[in-house]
């Protein structure tokens, strides 16, 4: 189903595996839809493959989210926060 056909305005969307190949791409897509929404990303950052790739994806997402919602804007169009079972990896950029 095309994301454009679903109204995601003001919705909170949980993306599991958000640092993975598909989850990171989905998160980036959601953050660039141009509607106010909140993405909650969950990822254990397992080491099935090189974790540095996942770290890179998280960095990309955070940069994207920061540019999508500059502090001086009255309405923050899109935000992302992280839930991670690895406590040290828990981060929030809301
Ligand atoms: N990549 C493809 O082409 C493709 C095609 C069809 C189906 N799939 C399926 O889609 C899913 C995602 O694929 P992918 O390529 O993004 O894999 P991926 O390994 O890149 O991403 C999965 C992410 O889930 C995280 N994860 C694993 N167990 C977790 C847990 N218990 N709690 C939190 N996070 C956890 C991992 O750390 C990883 O970052 C998989 O189930 C895969 O089998 C992928």
In round numbers, the mean pLDDT is 79
Based on CA atoms alone, the radius of gyration comes out at 13 Å
Order of helices and strands: EHEHE
Please report which band the strand proportion falls in: under 5%, 5-15%, 15-25%, 25-35%, 35-45% or over 45%.
Answer: 15-25%
In total, the number of domains comes to 1
What is the terminal-to-terminal distance?
28 Å
Helix content: 25-40%
Shape: globular
Structural class assignment = alpha/beta
* Distinct bound molecules: nicotinamide-adenine-dinucleotide
**Would you report the number of β strands?**
3
User: Are there runs of 5+ residues with pLDDT below 50, and where?
Assistant: 86-94
Tally of individual helices: 2
* Main β-sheet, spatial strand arrangement: 1-2-3
Largest sheet: 3 strands, parallel
Defining traits:
single chain, 94 residues, alpha/beta, three-stranded parallel beta sheet, 2 helices, 3 strands, globular, binds nicotinamide-adenine-dinucleotide
Describe the protein's architecture and organization.
The chain has one domain (7-89). 31% of the residues lie in helices and 18% in strands. It contains 2 helices and 3 strands. Strands 1-2-3 form a 3-stranded parallel β-sheet, with helices on one face. Helix 1 (21-31) links the parallel strand 1 and strand 2 (37-42). Helix 1 (21-31) runs parallel beside helix 2. The longest helix is centred in the middle third of the chain and has 18 residues, at 51-68. Residues 86-94 have low confidence and may be disordered. Residues 17, 19-23, 42-46, 48, 54, 85 line the site of nicotinamide-adenine-dinucleotide.
